[in-house]
Amino acid sequence: MGVKLGKRSLLRKASGSKRGLIHSLLVKMLIAFFIPVILIIILGRICYNYASDTIIKDYKENSANTVKAISMYMDLSMDMVLSKTQELSNDSDVVSYLTKGQLMEKSKYSLLYRNIMSDLVAMKSNNPNILDLHIIAEGTTAKSEANSSNSNVSGTSKTIYETYQIKPLSTKGELSVNIYQDLMNSGEGTAWSNAKNPNQWYGYHRFLDEQLETNNLDYALTLVRRLSKGKGFIIADMKLTTLYEILDNMKLGTGAIVGVVTNDGREIYASNQDEKTTNIFSSISYSQEVNTGTKTDGYEEIEYQNNSYLFVYSQVGDSGVMICSLIPKSTVLARVADIKKATVLVVIIACVVALIIGLGMSFGISKDISSKKKLLSEVAMGDMTVIFKTKRKDELGLLSKSLNEMTGKVRKLIGGIFHVSNDVAGISELVMINSNNMLEATQNIFYSIDGIRQGTSKQAEDAQNCTYQMNVLSDKIEEVTMHAKGTEKIASDTKGVVSEGIILVDDLSDKTNHITDMTHTIVDDIVKLKQQSASIYNIIDVINEISEQTNLLSLNASIEAARAGKEGRGFMVVAGEIGKLADQSIHAASNIRDIIKKIEEQTNNTVKSAQKTEKMVESQKLALEETVHVFHSINQKVIKLTDQIDLIAIGVDNMAGSKNDTLSAIGSIAAISEETAATTEQISETGLVQINFAHELTDITQKLNETVIALKANLDSFSI
């Protein structure tokens, strides 16, 4: 519908500026797919490194365990040889043959020699590890005696001693009788004799090889045992085939060099080794732990002939013999070669699959987006009849569906705008009519607001006068408040004084009660004293009776003394003194009676005085109780007075608060009146502005009609 306008400008906007290839969605998606491919490569590398490290570590430990197990097996074989030499050393025939050389018949020595040789041959035959056995000892010059007749003296004979040298023994061949001395004169014999261990393993016995015309390739190891009794050695040669069997069982991989190193420097390799292989282990720089013997087994990485090797070693018991192996690093790494190949293959396959999937998805998405881009360019030029077609079921398919819905709704929107533009044209005419009516109404409102402004100004003046009168009333209320607070203070002080008086009177009452109690106690004590005085009269009566009896006794004594005559004179004197004493007692008792009588009279007077005092104290106590009651009454009245004054103060405070509220309300009324006046002034100004707006609205309505006409012309360019 309509003619398409501005087509060239819309095409330029749709095409836009061309971006570089690097900013395209295809390149970004390919980069996004390449990131997991790179991560897959990194993962493969990490897995390979982890697997190779684990396998290499296990291979090293397994190799070390294999060498250690072989060393233990070899130690067992060597112990069997050692036990046989121990049997020989403790054999009674050997001990007798080597140490008992005094006065033994030659035939017995020959028999011992044959028996020992038979034992050596049997031991060699029965033990698969022993090649030959040798016994070399210092020995002694044996003696045997024989009787012979004396040719010069008939019937007599003399002893003849025959001497001979002890022979050494060997299953390999016959040895010289002087071989021990020759051996000790050589450096080899001295080393054997000075060795700390009486049972020492060696790789060579060169002196013995010269004597027997043998070669060190005939035997592997040789055990030299020093005799515990006598001077000499038991020598046992271990078969080379036995050592080959042990070393050949060590399957340590292709190119591995396996051998045995003795403490005297001999190196023996497995039978499958190259014959040119010699002195390899002696040319290697070991670690300090291996050189010093502090570490008996283990492994370490070394360099030999510019190649990396794994050196595995293990000592054979305490024999001084060490099993060694050199394993090329390439052999160790060969175990992980298959893992490397598999890892590389999987990574390559993953990369290819990721690239194929990424390229397919990227090209499909790019093609679909290009198609939508072309159709959107047509929509941008105003063609709303475009339909976005796609067979995709993913988000791009949903996007096509959404775009179709969008263009459909835009078509409806444009159609609606056509109808709305027509409606707007009619409405704009109505707006113009209403704007004229609004202008007239606004002018009427302006006149009404001006009248309100004058009334609010008069109301503001009246509110200010009311505020002045309330301020005068407020001053009066404040004076009443001050007087009420002064009265309240006086009442409070009076209450304090009354409280102090009550405390003093209570204290005086307590003291009066205490005095009353003391008076009662005094009266009781005086009465008791009077009773005690009465008991003294009884005692005086007893004393008088005793005095009378004493006078009678004195009189009787005087009579008896007179009868006695001259003999009773002394007794008469005593009787006279007793009579005088009795008279004095009667006189003293009479004086005491008089004193007690006076005390009794004084006591009666004191009792009367105390009773009067008690009555006075009782009356004083009653007066104090009345005083306390009066003080309590005064205190209650003062409390009521204080409460009333408090109520007055509260009422005055409430009046002050109400005054403040009234002032606040009047102030608010005044403020509101002023604000109302100001607001009405502003409304008046606003009314003027509103009148101007009404004029402008009329102009705008005219322009709206012109705009609606232009909108209709633009809508004609869309195809719906």
Automatic annotation (TrEMBL):
Q: Which residues cross the membrane?
A: 21-43, 342-365
Superkingdom of the source? Bacteria
Q: What are the recorded Gene Ontology BP terms?
A: signal transduction
Q: Which UniProt keywords apply?
A: Membrane, Transducer, Transmembrane, Transmembrane helix
**Keyword Cell inner membrane on entry:** no
Where is the HAMP domain positioned along the sequence?
Answer: 376-415
Alphabetical GO CC annotations of the entry are: membrane
Q: Where is the signal peptide?
A: none
Q: Which CDD domains match?
A: HAMP, MCP_signal, PDC2_HK_sensor
Domain Methyl-accepting transducer: start-end pairs: 434-684
SMART domains assigned to the protein according to its UniProt record, in alphabetical order: MA
Q: What family does this chain come from, according to its entry?
A: Belongs to the methyl-accepting chemotaxis (MCP) protein family.
What's the protein here called? Methyl-accepting chemotaxis protein
**Classification lineage:** Bacteria, Bacillati, Bacillota, Clostridia, Lachnospirales
